[in-house]
Amino acid sequence: xxxxxxxxxxxxxxxxxxxxxxxxxxxxxxxxxxxxxxxxxxxxxxxxxxxxxxxxxxxxxxxxxxxxxxxxxxxxxxxxxxxxxxxxxxxxxxxxxxxxxxxxxxxxxxxxxxxxxxxxxxxxxxxxxxxxxxxxxxxxxxxxxxxxxxxxxxxxxxxxxxxxxxxxxxxxxxxxxxxxxxxxxxxxxxxxxxxxxxxxxxxxxxxxxxxxxxxxxxxxxxxxxxxxxxxxxxxxxxxxxxxxxxxxxxxxxxxxxxxxxxxxxxxxxxxxxxxxxxxxxxxxxxxxxxxxxxxxxxxxxxxxxxxxxxxxxxxxxxxxxxxxxxxxxxxxxxxxxxxxxxxxxxxxxxxxxxxxxxxxxxxxxxx
Length: 367
What we know:
CATH architecture of the largest domain: Alpha-Beta Complex
Order of helices and strands: EEEHEEEHHEEEEHEHEHEHEHEHEHEHE
Structural class: alpha/beta
Distance between the termini: 15 Å
CATH class of the largest domain: Alpha Beta
Largest sheet: 7 strands, mixed
CATH topology of the largest domain: Quinone Oxidoreductase, Chain A, domain 1
Number of domains: 2
């Protein structure tokens, strides 16, 4: 089968939209038609070379689509089902899967590192040469093949453009609050980075009953939008020292929780420095391969601070995404304001440029 796809041929370059070949699904696999794919910063980090991945590859890990055919032995899905790809395949049996941390499973880690599916091969090619998968998903292809276990069936009345956002931005941000730190009501929170993931940290904190939610960003438009998701205060980091302002807003104490949703050493350090005693700094943004952070180790002991991270919202996607759909239906979880706009796949590089400039909160590409 032929498919339009956005291919990264070399790090440091943009994406090239071309027609690739997609193999039939093998036993235990499913071929889907992607209807909408989220424009996420993690894919940009691969494009710039800050995050390693085998190339050439079809990027995209946040998506939603329709099952068009299934391989032998597939029992949980059928043609016509609406699905969300899960970008960290898990075995369901290891210590991490058994303890509600399937994103840490070695199966998903291997697929992410190799750019191939579980049998060690790719389902994509161009002029007879292999094209790698990304995160086992490759949502920037109109058609893609995934293992049955890497797909979650969703209600057919949920718009694809909104469903796609649940697969990364929403579950990563909300999950970091609900799952990773299990926040109790009445806490104080700072969120560094008010982009697509950051505003979902904000609304996760609001859902958890946080008393004070401080959004920090360099773009005024994103700060204004963060209030819609539950931010009680905002700080423009382009003109203010966010650490000093956070301490001022909290009476010098600092915050109970600081979430970093950018992936830069400077913002990770700022998040840690904004903590109160016994505070927790949670890194959600994906740093570059070589990124390092320095801070006073003494505060780990004398103030009992914690610096940790969260992958995929520390979630069990098969349980958490259906719950988030119900929260959306009940009006408690915002999805519609999260989607800034849609682009045709041919304009994917323009979509990333708009994200980098702060013009969009979250956008999707469609085919």
